[in-house]
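Lab notebook: predicted structure, single chain.

Context: the supervisor wants predicted structures on file for every construct in the current expression panel, including those that have not yet been purified. This is the next one on the list. No modifications to the sequence; it matches the entry in the shared construct table.
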Amino acid sequence: MTKALMNITSFHIVSDEKKNSFDAKLEYEFFNNFESPHTRKSYRSDIAQFFEFLSIHFKTVTNYELIERVHVVAFRNWLTDNELAPKSINRKIAANSSFFDFLIEKGIAKINPCSSIKRPRQEVRSPTNDLSDQEIVNLLSLFDSVTGPALLHKAVIYTLFTTGIRKAELINLRRKNFTVKDSHYLIEVKAKGGKILTKVVHPKCAEVILEFITYLESQGEKIHPEDWIFRPSRNPLDPTHIIKPLNPKSVDYIVKTWCKKAGIHHRISPHSARASYIGSALDSGIDLYKISKDVGHASVKTTEEYNKRRQNLDESPVFGLGFLNTKKTN
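Prediction complete. Output recorded below exactly as produced.
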């Protein structure tokens, strides 16, 4: 069988003449080896984009063995010319590198053309905007008297800003993940890389979540332990089917809409809540390592990147130098 390029539409590895039943098994094995649905989706997109790039710019490349490092370099430079963020470029190269390692393991390819490719430095071009503590106070105050379906919005906002969890983690929270231990409410979150985080929930946030659950039950909905906590209040396409996770775009809408109502008009996203959580905790003097562990970062350097708040210049270490401190006595 002639080894051919990946079909970027169906994501099947196919022969030049017809699909082979083993190709579907290869596809399943590669993508389903990644535990996170988000990772699988991203890798599919990134690999497809590379092969689409080849099909447009290097039409003579018709099988894996013809793909060389120069093609990956050209792909990287094309992404850079299109002003893609360094972090995204690196992810796309990493996805394709992982795919070629898999092909080598299966005897389908002989080399990994992504090896030794110089990758751009991952400086953040457009840092996530966080909110000041006062802006968050103003935002939360809008929910003091909301009732009915708006309780979903209230629960989403409170949970994002007081736990620092990611949008995908919030969407996937189930009733069984919200528990009580030693008088403390907890949520169990499946984070990036398959890590399981157990986070303490602030009493006010727990109260808001319980208020929303109580509202759902008052509408005749039975909340099963496996049911998602954050679910749509209505489904126009199928009114009988609302026991499903909240759509990611709905979370974006909730955050942006209520921030505008609070008079916050700079660029805001659900990730801004995570940045605000980390920034506020750092401002309060909480240990960097504890915060990093709490939010599931693999490195404290990642946590430090979220601290966009202006530092107090009066607290600079320069004012604590003993040899310049005129008040110091021997």
